[in-house]
Amino acid sequence: MCGRFTLIATPDEVRRYFRYDEQPNFPPRYNIAPTQPIAVVIAGKETTHFRLMRWGLIPGWVKDTAKFPLLINARSESAAEKPAFRAAMRHRRSLIPASGFYEWRRVGKEKQAFFIRPKDGGVVAFAALHECYQDAAGNELDTAAILTTSANRLMAMVHDRMPVVIRPADFAEWLDTARNEPRHVTELMRPVDDDFFEAIPVSSKVNAVRNDDASLISPISEPLSLDSPPKEEVEEPAPRRSQGDLFSE
């Protein structure tokens, strides 16, 4: 599961990485949480486009959103068959820009938060699905979910799932739903190499959605190594329905 992530790259760095035409301006975010607006990159006729969407996918057939579960993640292995994700997996694949994400594991009697980021820094693209939900009054809401896959060897020390990462060389193939059915992009949803990410222990301040500053990603000890002891089982903090704005300072 991926329940919190960051986007701390500059707007220009993100735009160059994904090559969309829009030039949005947004501040760094250190603790993006479910139901908040998130940056999503979608396919266009000739280029990609930047959009803001609610983190938490709502299929078009939902009648009462209050009774529908919060779908922030979709399992890549089964998304093409699940009613909630089937249509989006076939027709509306997208990318979510991120600088890293958080996961938790138990250390003794405590839950230790880890900031998981690319070893080489920079931006990554999480594989995503999106839907435009329309309520009974005709109001539209763009929504999205992050696709997950099984953990690689490093991530398995913290959690058994991780976001699917799409490489820039594979953006076009992933986004081209006209030519590529879900079965054609299965190989793109494999876990990244064991040494792609590093897992950095960070403060428990990240547990509270209201905290959103650079101190959240400051290391409190050395990163995990592939020789670290195995993880203990732990449940992540329950997602909170914060309505913070990606573009608010």
Automatic annotation (TrEMBL):
It is an enzyme of class 3 (hydrolase). It comes from the Bacteria. Coiled coil: none annotated. One of its GO terms (biological process) is protein-DNA covalent cross-linking repair. Keywords: Covalent protein-DNA linkage, DNA damage, DNA-binding, Hydrolase, Lyase, Protease. InterPro entries: SRAP, SRAP-like. Its EC number is 3.4.-.-. The keyword rRNA processing does not apply. Residues 229-243 have a biased composition (Basic and acidic residues). Residues 219-228 have a biased composition (Low complexity). Belongs to the SOS response-associated peptidase family. This is Abasic site processing protein.
